[in-house]
Design goal:
The protein starts with a strand and ends in a 5-residue tail after the last helix. It is built from 10 helices and 2 strands, in the order ββαααααααααα. With 270 residues, the protein is an all-alpha fold. It has one domain. A hairpin with a 5-residue loop joins β1 and β2. Strands 1-2 form a two-stranded antiparallel sheet.
Length: 270
Amino acid sequence: MYRTNSGRKVKIMSQPGRRQKIPQKISYDRWNPSVREVLLSLLEAASLIAAADYLFYESAWALIPMLPAAALVLKMNREKALKERKALLAGQFRHALRDMGTSLKAGYSIENAITLCRRDMEKLYGREALMAKELTLMESQIRLSVPAWQLFMDLAGRSGDEDIGIFASAYAAARQSGGDVGNVMQKVSRMLGDKMDVRSEIDTALSSRKLEQGIMSLMPALIIAYLKLSSPGFMAPLYGNSFGIVFMSVCLAFYIGAWEMGRRIVDIRV
């Protein structure tokens, strides 16, 4: 039984035959890869190391100092997975914010709005969706008399998302000052919507540039591979001697630096 902002009591019945499982808090800065993800990352690292050895050294001994590159690949995959998960949470949070704002405008309390929103999230994204789990966790904490604004602040801290942090701060201020929480949710939802639209436009405009960057990053390696296959004698002086090892190491360092610089240039954040 919940009480709306107008004082009217509304009872939301639980779904029959279903026992709600309370999820654990999700740490959005921690990556727990599956065995498959680890194996794929190791396979990717092994492929890159083997390709680098073939193109720049042609020596089995060169594989030993390049083995730490496997940890670098794992780190990059971790950053990619965390970034994708946070982006997924941000998109679902925007939808949830709009739903909760509508419920509050209709006269429901924040507790009731969270329950209704959780059901919508489960229907739209499934029970294993990030926002559905977060709302389920909020429901369980609200039953323990934890204020809703603290729960949103906790979500902002765990996710590290700037948009969620802005809403949590605005909601806490409105709650403590007696402001219109529903109006705050709708304004923040519109602001986040405009921000995501700008982000989408930037991604669309940069999609071709990212493709060009990927092709240009592959060109030096493809040129070396072409020369090795078409004219083995032309590249032979660069392998199996001290000068060649130093020269190709410098080339490899410049290649990696140029690739990293290009990746950062097209990685524009809003």
